[in-house]
Amino acid sequence: MKRIIIFAGTTEGRLLSDGLAKGGVPHILSVATDYGELVLKENPLVQVHKGRMNEDEMESFIEENGDLVFDATHPYASIVTDNIKEACNKKGKEYIRIIREKAAASQDNRLNPSEKNGEGKIVYFEDVESCAKGLLSTVGNILLTTGSKDIDAFASDEEVRERLYARVLPSVDSIELCNNAGLKGEHIIAMQGPFSLELNKALISQLNIKTLVTKESGVTGGFPEKLKAADDEDIDLFVIGRPREEKGLSVKEAIRLIVGEPVMEISLVGIGPGDLSYLTERSRAVIETSDVVFGAERMIAPYKETKEVYPYYLAKDVVPILLEGRHERVAILFSGDSGFYSGSEKMRREVEDLLAKEGIKCRMETLPGISSLSYFSAKIGESYSNSGMISLHGKSKEPCVYQDFVNELEGKGRVFSLLSGKDDVEKLCNELIDNNLGDIPIVFGYELSYEDERIFHGTPKSILKDTVPTLRSGLFTVFAKK
Fold this sequence. Notes:
Blueprint: E1 4-7, H1 11-22, E2 27-31, H2 34-38, E3 46-50, H3 55-65, E4 68-71, H4 78-91, E5 94-97, E6 122-125, H5 128-134, E7 141-144, H6 151-155, H7 158-163, E8 164-168, H8 172-180, E9 188-190, H9 197-206, E10 209-215, H10 223-232, E11 236-240, H11 251-259, E12 264-270, H12 281-288, E13 292-294, H13 297-300, E14 308-310, H14 315-325, E15 329-334, H15 344-357, E16 362-367, H16 372-380, E17 388-391, H17 401-412, E18 414-419, H18 422-434, E19 442-446, E20 454-458, H19 460-467, E21 476-481
Parallel strand pairs: 1-2, 1-4, 2-3, 4-5, 6-11, 7-8, 7-10, 8-9, 10-11, 12-15, 12-16, 13-14, 13-15, 17-18
Antiparallel strand pairs: 18-21, 19-20, 19-21
Helix pairs in contact: 1-11, 3-4, 9-10, 14-15, 17-18, 18-19
């Protein structure tokens, strides 16, 4: 087996290392800083080498430890790339450059500033120096998202420095470079990415930013989220284009070269009641790192600008897309909790069977979410302990379905249920009235967690008379007790 070295420094380096480790391939991962080592996952197959190397040290390191060298350093670190390539040539080692996937809206197809929806414009620059010079003609605060390496160039002008906010890695080296460049503490934002669209917009609003500076850092570098944030907030976007076109392999291609066809990782994700603030951190991370996202239209809407998404939630529709694209990381979204009246169990079984027939290996996991029952019970101050639970969602044509609710209520004394829409509310109230339960307390929750959320309190009789005529289509959760 070839001895493999990965020179990291980017998300691609970590992803490549993870992919090789999952495939059982030992390798050395070289990082320049303590922080680079800190963000790596521990793995017995990964030997981490920390520290910067001069040309002679790099040649000796490669000669002693590697037969195949992957260069996953930053696209803008051209000097480092040249040194690695030269060392490999001298020592007769195989060299492969890891190239970063470009964002959909990149320098190649978004050169016309007039295409931007709002008042802000997009301006492209060939290098750091010309971008720093361009900032002299701007007005208002500047959010610099290019890291700390070139902070001196951007902060050299005193007037610009007073308006400059730098978002850098939370490492001692990064903060020291900012301090040395003359940035005040309140102008240093030390954070580890990736950064969501919402966080970018929040920083722009909080700091009253008028110009956002970024490198064309591709998908993993968060370029789509920065472009969309600038567009939404109507501010200028200054983009430093990639220094040169590169040839090489993507992370996926490199993993396939060494490991072979990877196992498809599929996550069935319970997204909670709907508002993204109720999404668990684990689910959020899985969605952000997925190649493709499936789900009902409303569920995938927040990811349309940054992800490959499909409005499918049946296995027969999902699997053909997976076979065509051979995606490695897949997220299939389900409302509420994946274990509470969810289609995730059926989806898991059917997807596994359909992929197996095509000879595709997959690894599936199910992630729980916050159920509408849990959200609703907290909202109305009623515990669901010892309560009956029944779903009427999508069952309106089944015989006796509303009587099943009545039976559960008679047996438990209190019951929570999921409904499909306005018709369910009307039919359920009529069923309760027909069973001499027209005056019991009943609560309906409408579009829980969304902006148009409403809570209706009453009795079956009052809800039928006063509330049903005002209802629109949407999802309901109901609680009743005798």
